[in-house]
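Why do we bother with holo predictions? Because pocket geometry can differ from the apo form. Keep that in mind while you read this record for 3,4-dihydroxyphenylalanine.
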Amino acid sequence: MIDKINAIRAELAAIASEGAAADVEALRIKYLSKKGAISALMNDFRNVPAEQKREIGQALNELKNYATDTINALREASAAGAAKSDAPDLTRTAAPLRTGTRHPLSLVREQIIDIFRRLGFTIAEGPEIEDDWHVFESLNFPADHPARDMQDTFFIGRNPDVLLRTHTSSVQTRVMTSQKPPIRIICPGRVYRNEAISARAHCFFHQVEALYVDRNVTFADLRQTLLYFAREMFGPQTEIRLRPSYFPFTEPSAEMDISCNLCGGKGCSFCKGTGWVEILGCGMVDPNVLESCGINSKEYTGFALGMGIERITNLKYQVKDLRMFSENDVRFLEEFTSAH
Ligand code: DAH
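The structure, written out:
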């Protein structure tokens, strides 16, 4: 027994003298595990004659301690070696990749565009820095209209003719002055207004404008387009209603309400008990606008409509505070992961 103990001790000493071992775990199993060499000796211990038990017991315990210390030291040495090496640690778990999410306004903008694309509309874009003619004058705004007031419009520098567009209707006249009817366009874009920032207003927001100019375009075409849009966007049960309104660039003008998609039209706090929520402005293009863009208003008619993307997004996803859209709080943005 003593010989066996000494043999194992010698083996361990030889291993320790090499300073490092390729597989420390294999050594632990070989010597210290339940089926290891030292445990086997421990099992044999019960056959040792009583008068030798003391001496051999002590030698066995020392061997076990020596083996434990040796293997621990080897483990530390190899861990330190691994830390120093440049080799990649293939045992590490992979860092999870966070996939990005699309911004809710982009999601809704794409949905709107997609619906109008199916009706044959194509995308048109215009500059955010505009001139007075495209934003106001060509759109039949009277010279003293309050929207021209400094309160609403951001001017760039001192020149009153260089401003940030307050609506995407400016793209209508950009297109009508450069293309001939038939015109069927959808214009998504960012617009700016000199408003104090709050939960319900922001100094920039997003609109989508649609314009259809051709021979024989009627209010019935507008209404059917709106109904199709509303049902595609908010579900087939959606009803629409048109209320007379005023915009300088359309005659007649209307505002469209949809049946409240939260209460189904019964009346709730969201629709202020009315069962309807307003979603966009629209109308037949005013003949003055067609003429100012060089389109013969005797030959052609058209309809136009404009909506706020934030408003549509609020209706779909009940975002209470407009500021959420521009704060880029990842916790908010990640809520739209499944909305793609
Ligand atoms: N430009 C309007 C606004 O900013 C929205 C609008 C209303 C656009 C009626 C239109 C329209 O094309 O026909 O509030």
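Strands lie at 122-123, 129-131, 162-164, 183-192, 204-214, 240-247, 250-259, 276-285, 301-308.
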